[in-house]
Design goal:
Blueprint: H1 3-31, H2 33-54, H3 59-69, H4 75-100, H5 102-110, H6 116-141, H7 145-193, H8 211-245, H9 248-282, H10 286-313, H11 315-322, H12 334-356, H13 360-385, H14 389-415
Helix pairs in contact: 1-2, 1-7, 1-9, 2-4, 2-7, 2-8, 2-9, 3-4, 3-6, 3-8, 3-9, 4-6, 4-8, 5-6, 6-7, 8-9, 8-13, 9-10, 9-12, 10-12, 12-14, 13-14
Length: 416
Amino acid sequence: MTLIKTSVLSFIATAIKMLSMLAINKAVAVFIGPTGLALIGQFQNFTQLGMTVAQGGINAGVTKYTAEYGRESDQLRVLFSTAFKISFLCSIAFGFTSILFSKLFSDYFLDTVEYSYVFVIFGISLPLFVLNQLLLSIVNGLKEVKVFIGANISQSVYGLIFTSILVIFFGLDGALIAMVTNQSVILLVVLWMLRKHAVIRWQLFKSAYSREEGRKLFRYSAMALTTAAMVPVSHLLVRNYIGDTLGWEQAGYWQAIWYISTIYLMVVTTALSIYYLPRLSEISDIAEIRSELFSGYKIILPVVSLMAVAIYFCKDLIVWLLFTEEFEPIKELFVWQLIGDVIKLAAWLLSYLMLAKAMVRYLVVTEILFSILFVVLSILFVQRYGLIGVTYAFALNYTIYFLVMARRIKAFFAVS
């Protein structure tokens, strides 16, 4: 399946997910407000970290090697069983940790022990989420786009209904509960969709653990866990700094503009995860890799740029549609946030190639360095320019990141 066809199908799924998030976001804005949105951002960063650790950080590796081996390969049995054992043990371990330290986590991330029960629910539901994500990573590696997208559509529709009801009736508590249960419930839908699958069968998950496969998967674990740790932690630090110096309403405004970026960029990032990683993983010819990379830039960058321009000129409508009058101050954050988004996607196209070719050490080092740089730049620019400074930091950080990625990829092509 080509990038264009994949993009069209992923756009359908993403459009439904976007509509779902728009409705959920409006409910959160109306019933919870900016301060509540900031707390949701804090909890979301924790769950991002927890979910990646609970998966063992191997899902990108599962997708890569499933695509690389091919659906007829006997190695799939060893890969699936090894991945299942890693994911199951890691999910149980982190789930137990979340339950045991629920009060500590609640107090640190949400500034009160009142929500400790949410961390308990998270710990209990975590193994279900991890199994769901493992199955979807395998489906992605098999390049069964329709199944993958069908599962995402189901999750979006369920999330819209369930989350909206909980937010309306239970406010912040409802939003937090929805965040830790939505994807776990979708496991039932995924199992039903795969019940007669020709490749994904229970027997393939029952083989012994393979040290060789485990070693290869843990190479991806290092990259995934670094990203899972550095990105949410950097956002937590920036959001805490904004909350402590400018106030938690201001932190809520930054969370709101970040939500807008997340929603519209899903159109592109979904296509990248569904098409690019499996495709770049399975090809080894340099000319073909170069062609795929250039086609990505020809298709994706113009789309992202046009979307960013459209969002800027429609910002008044977007703020009215997604939020309430309380969120009017976020309008000044749009320009540099959107510029940063375009540069970010340009850099991500390069980093996907590095991920597909398992350039572990370089990715880990750059992820750490640029997460630290984002925090440092944010603090410096917020001190000098106020809240808008964090968007300056975002755009500058990804500009430097893109230049570093471009230099590394140029070296990769030179020696290959």
